[in-house]
UniProtKB/TrEMBL annotation:
Native source species: Bradyrhizobium cytisi
Record-level Gene Ontology MF annotations: phosphonopyruvate hydrolase activity
Lineage of origin: Bacteria, Pseudomonadati, Pseudomonadota, Alphaproteobacteria, Hyphomicrobiales
InterPro entries reported for this sequence: ICL/PEPM (IPR039556), PPH (IPR012649), Pyrv/PenolPyrv_kinase-like_dom (IPR015813), Pyrv_kinase-like_dom_sf (IPR040442)
EC number: 3.11.1.3
Keywords: Hydrolase, Pyruvate
The organism's place on the tree of life at top rank: Bacteria
Enzyme class: hydrolase
Name of the protein this chain belongs to: Phosphonopyruvate hydrolase
Family recorded in the similarity comment: Belongs to the isocitrate lyase/PEP mutase superfamily. PEP mutase family.
Length: 288
């Protein structure tokens, strides 16, 4: 999987990576033509009804990465938050995520426990640059496959520290060997990120997560040039919530499932996604 992602990155085009919180959502992303899956901490937390505050354990997230990697052919970009501790914990996390089938990790320069970057009044504390460089070095030294992609995420803009600090951190993380730099922003316009990208003089390609500034469409991203991956960070869980709310409300309102039935996928579509056709073949072959 890591070599597939590296291959795509070498194509020098923008990669489109969709969030997923289950093998099923990962498969739907694959069928829609995305380049990769974002194993989002936010989505998995929300699936459990929990805030994105490091409540979900590494084991829970790893289990989901494992389940997804067995179900999709797409490379998985795993959101490992702060790396579950210090540089020593990072060595353990990288070994586990590589074994679970991830092709890449994104590790962010916040302190543990993290607070969701999208929270309006979040406590956003950043690590010392040297300490985070140590975590990147630990990740690079631990990966077994050199194609495994280590993406360093700076939260300098999220923490309100400004562009100069974000650029300084990104350069330090590239110097420590990060393959790509994720610059995150929760401003509701693309200005902050566009300004960062224009000012970025490093060689490491940039990753963005434009949740807060949705008008940053792919045309606008490509025009900037240096962004090589766009992550749609939470659109699988938000789409699910939208659809479930609508259908649940209609069933209550209409007193049954008779009106919604035609508007939701038939059971046969779920059979297809579950691979029921394979079960039939196995039945024929082996059931005596
Ligand atoms: C996630 O999807 O868990 C992310 C992106 O890290 S964000 O929620 O925007 O921080
Ligand atoms: Mg996250």
């Amino acid at each position: 999987m890591a070599s597939i992602l590296r291959g795509k990155l070498n194509e020098s085009r923008l990669l489109h990576v969709m969030a997923a919180h289950s093998p099923l959502s990962a498969k739907l992303a694959e069928e829609t033509g995305f380049d990769g899956i974002w194993a989002s901490g936010f989505e998995l937390s929300a699936l459990y009804g929990l805030p994105d505050l490091s409540f979900i354990s590494m084991t829970q997230h790893l289990d989901m990465v494992r389940a997804m990697s067995g179900f999709t052919h797409l490379p998985i970009v795993a959101d490992i938050d702060t790396g579950f501790g210090n540089a020593i914990n990072v060595t353990h996390a990288i070994a586990e995520y590589e074994r679970a089938g991830a092709a890449a990790v994104v590790i962010e320069d916040k302190t543990f426990p993290k607070v969701s970057s999208l929270a309006i009044t979040g406590r956003q504390e950043l690590l010392r640059i040297e300490e985070f460089q140590g975590k990147i070095s630990a990740a690079l030294a631990t990966r077994r496959d050199p194609n495994f992609v280590v993406i360093a995420r700076t939260e300098a803009l999220i923490a309100g520290l400004g562009e100069a600090e974000a650029l300084k951190r990104a350069a330090a993380y590239e110097a420590a060997g990060a393959d790509m730099i994720l610059i995150h922003s929760k401003q509701n316009t693309p200005d902050e990120v566009e300004s960062f990208v224009r000012a970025w003089s490093g060689d490491a390609p940039i990753v963005i997560v434009p949740t807060a500034y949705p008008e940053m469409n792919e045309g606008r991203i490509s025009a900037l040039g240096k962004i090589r991956m766009v992550i749609y960070g939470n659109h699988a869980i938000r789409a699910s919530v939208t659809a479930m709310k609508d259908v649940f409300a209609r069933i209550r309102r209409d007193g049954g499932i008779h009106t919604v039935n035609k508007d939701i996928v038939p059971v046969e579509e779920i059979f297809r996604l579950q691979g029921m056709d394979r079960v039939k073949l196995v039945e024929k072959q082996f059931l005596r």
